[in-house]
C-alpha cells in the first residue's frame, strides 16, 4: 500500500495552457502553480505537470499502452467523477463501459481526452482485490 508521504509525479505535454487549466479544473483538479511554460495540478492527490510543447502532441492517440488515470476504490466517488465529467461537457474518448464482464477482474471504466490528446482512464473494480 502507498505511504501518505509519497506522491506520484507525471509530466505530459500540452498545446495551450489556458485550455489545459480549464479542462483539469473542470475535472476537479486544483491548479497548484502556473509558469509561462507549464502548469502543475493536484491530480486527486498526485502531481501532474503539463508542459507547453505544442509540437509534441500525439495526433492519433490510442488507449493502449499510453494513458494515465485513477482507480477509484469507492463506487460513489467513481459515479460522482463520471457525473462531473458529463456536467462539465468534458470530451469522452470512450464512454463508460464494463471490462472483463463476469470475471473476478470485472470493472467499469471511461476514458477522457484532454485538449492535448492525452488519454485519462478512470475505473472502479467491483472486487477490491483486483485493484493491483
UniProtKB/TrEMBL annotation:
Pfam families from the entry? Answer: Glyoxalase
Protein name as catalogued: VOC family protein
Alphabetical list of InterPro entries matching this protein: Glyas_Bleomycin-R_OHBP_Dase (IPR029068), Glyas_Fos-R_dOase_dom (IPR004360), VOC_core (IPR037523)
Q: Where do the VOC domain residues begin and end?
A: 6-125
Amino acid at each position: 500500500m502507498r505511504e501518505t508521504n509519497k506522491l506520484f509525479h507525471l509530466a505530459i505535454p500540452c498545446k495551450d495552457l489556458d485550455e489545459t487549466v480549464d479542462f483539469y479544473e473542470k475535472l476537479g483538479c486544483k491548479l497548484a502553480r502556473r509558469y509561462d511554460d507549464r502548469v502543475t495540478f493536484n491530480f486527486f492527490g498526485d502531481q501532474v505537470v503539463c508542459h507547453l510543447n505544442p509540437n509534441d502532441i500525439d495526433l492519433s492517440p490510442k488507449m493502449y499502452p499510453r494513458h494515465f488515470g485513477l482507480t477509484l476504490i469507492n463506487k460513489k466517488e467513481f459515479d460522482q467523477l463520471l457525473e462531473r465529467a458529463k456536467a462539465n461537457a468534458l470530451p469522452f474518448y470512450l464512454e463508460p463501459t464494463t471490462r472483463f464482464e463476469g470475471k473476478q477482474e470485472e470493472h467499469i471504466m471511461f476514458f477522457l481526452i484532454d485538449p492535448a490528446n492525452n488519454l485519462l482512464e478512470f475505473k472502479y473494480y467491483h472486487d477490491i482485490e483486483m485493484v493491483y
